[in-house]
Amino acid sequence: MKISLKLFAVAAAFGMAPVAAVAQNAPAAAPTATAAAPAAPGAQAATAQQPIDAISANSQAQPAQPEEASLTSRDEQPSKAEVLSSSLARTQPDAEVGQPTGKLGFQPQVTPIGEEASWFHNAILLPLITAISVFVLALLLYVMIRFRRSANPTPSRTTHNTMLEIAWTLVPVLILVAIAVPSIRLLAHQYSPPKADLTVKATGNQWYWTYTYPDHGDFEIVSNMLKDEDAKKRGEPRLLAVDERVVVPVGATVKMIVTSADVIHSWGVPAFWAKVDAVPGRLNETWFKTDRPGIYYGQCFELCGARHAYMPIAVEVVTPAQFAAWVASKGGTMPGAAQPKSGDETATSPITNPGAAAAAAGPTPTAGGSATETSPEPPAITPGTSAPPVSSQGATESKRGN
Ligand SMILES: [Cu+2]
């Protein structure tokens, strides 16, 4: 019995548990991953009602290809949409921010929550822990020297000291209360996010991530890790670079809805102080907001199988205008932008008609570039569609019905 339990535990650790086995039968990184993906009832219904159209199918097919294929095709004759998306998505990362630096301590924090948390750690916890450790060490050394057998041959027979006992009970309690105040305040800030400006849904798969943008036409991107040589070619850190980054506008409050299609994963980006488990059949939520454009790397934080270490996360924070252009290049729409009225939805596809896609994207990158330098504001987002409830897809449905 014990042996079989152990075997099961080992199998589960390597992603061979029954749940995983079913998922593994599906071809990995297939463009149709969404169809089999979300196990949550709400999400499943939404996917079933929204068949993948030609646009999103096209936009998915490319990122899901093996890295070499997409690289060579890019070298030969890139389409306008590819040029657009690659010039946007291939910004160089900062070696000191958003990725491991090899230094002690946390990565530099770029979100308000991250700044609060690292202040709590650096200004309160670390000094307190150091002081207590040094104090206890000093007491031990004193006792060892002062009361050693040669210096103190006849030990005192004292067993109680009321004042001392009250003190060593009360002082630790007061220290814990002092820590609890900023700790609970931080927790409250983490779990009471401001109103979201956009929602991104991340789905963990063995072993890659898919992202959908429900506020922007529900398009999907598939994010696979780059091979070492490809990451090197692009000047990105190995094991962290991906082919398709999550792109979000600077200054916007991003609501991350996180779930899984197979086993438990965990979506997290250390520089954002954001991490949440991706559990099949559940929609977990975290959020981040940063005023600093750049590229921020994360990884799967839950041992999810053989290639657990090879499903990194890369979030690119861009100007609102660049974000709008990126959304258009992926076949999505900005909230409030004109929806295609005819049945011919490929009319605004960047693949079939790059000009129309650029027009639909609203502000052009050049016009917005100067605007963002002076005012890095979140993009204009229709209040009604900005934050659909987690469990209901009503807002998205009605928007798509237009
Ligand atoms: Cu994982």
Brief account:
Its cofactor is heme; Cu cation. By secondary structure, the chain is α+β, with helices and mostly antiparallel strands.
Report on this structure.
The structure is a single chain. The protein has 15 helices and ten strands. The chain is of the alpha+beta class. It has two domains: about 10-95 and about 195-340 and about 350-380 and about 395-400, Immunoglobulin-like (Sandwich); about 110-150 and about 160-190, no CATH class. The chain has a five-stranded mixed beta sheet. Helix 7 crosses helix 11. The protein is elongated, with a radius of gyration of 26 Å. Copper (II) ion binds near residues 204, 302 and 304. The site of copper (II) ion (CU) has 7 residues, from loops. InterPro entries: CcO_II, CcO_II-like_C, CcO_II_C, Copper_CuA, Cupredoxin, Cyt_c_oxidase_su2, Cyt_c_oxidase_su2_TM_dom, Cyt_c_oxidase_su2_TM_sf. Its cofactor is heme; Cu cation. Its EC number is 7.1.1.9. It catalyses: 4 Fe(II)-[cytochrome c] + O2 + 8 H(+)(in) = 4 Fe(III)-[cytochrome c] + 2 H2O + 4 H(+)(out). Belongs to the cytochrome c oxidase subunit 2 family.
